[in-house]
Amino acid sequence: MKANSLLIRALSGTVLVLLVVGMTLAWYDPATGVPGRTFYLLWSVVGLLTLWEYGRLLGARLKTRSAGGRAAWYLLGGAYIAQAFVLIQLMDAMLVVTLMTVVWMSDTGAYLVGSTVGRHKMAPVVSPKKTWEGFAGGMLFAVGVSLVWYSLYWGGQYDGAIATWGAAAYDSHLVGALKWVGFGIVVGLAATVGDLVESKFKRTIDVKDSGGIIPGHGGMLDRFDALLLAVPVAWGYLLLTALTE
């Protein structure tokens, strides 16, 4: 990748992260977990743009398919995209930022490790650049970031209990840490599969990028593909483990 392209990608990626995190946490009340209006505005707009992008791609690429086939693509794909953005708006805003960070760092870890030492192709037909070494790196990054979040923010719920109850509460602290390891694992796996699903979709309709709204990164579907599966998986994990309670 040329230096100018890398610079554009880095700058637009930085702006995107700052915008998403800033609007997600603006006017957030940690005491009640109630997000501000910008949270709902942001994720409604992102969801609608992603749905629009998906519909535009189908309209341009599936003209030769039957009406029933086109309807199935619209309904199934639209439901897959919509469910993630609906569930996001039912989550604690800080948890959404935590989830996004784990997803983003999983992708970063996979890229860094895969581009450095990657040798064994993971899914050569669907995504030729993905390697098993990169996958392992992504999982390590996902688990590491989850534990950092637990240490800096989510683990605070145990501090007072440890001071009061001692060793018994410390055991709960350890269980909490292990739950966050599990969070990193399931989110990292879901993010990888979500990325592969979108890669398969783009190969099926023969496009490189889903759009060009984000310079150097492609479209909304390109940037939020991993989140589409990570959100419902994280939601299910939260229900099973009571992770943040």
UniProtKB/TrEMBL annotation:
InterPro entries: PC_trans (IPR000374). The keyword Lipid biosynthesis applies. It is a multi-pass membrane protein. PROSITE patterns: CDS. It is found in: Cell membrane. One of its GO terms (molecular function) is phosphatidate cytidylyltransferase activity. It catalyses: a 1,2-diacyl-sn-glycero-3-phosphate + CTP + H(+) = a CDP-1,2-diacyl-sn-glycerol + diphosphate. One of its GO terms (cellular component) is plasma membrane. It comes from the Bacteria. The chain crosses the membrane at residues 7-28, 40-59, 71-88, 94-113, 134-154, 174-193, 226-244. This is Phosphatidate cytidylyltransferase.
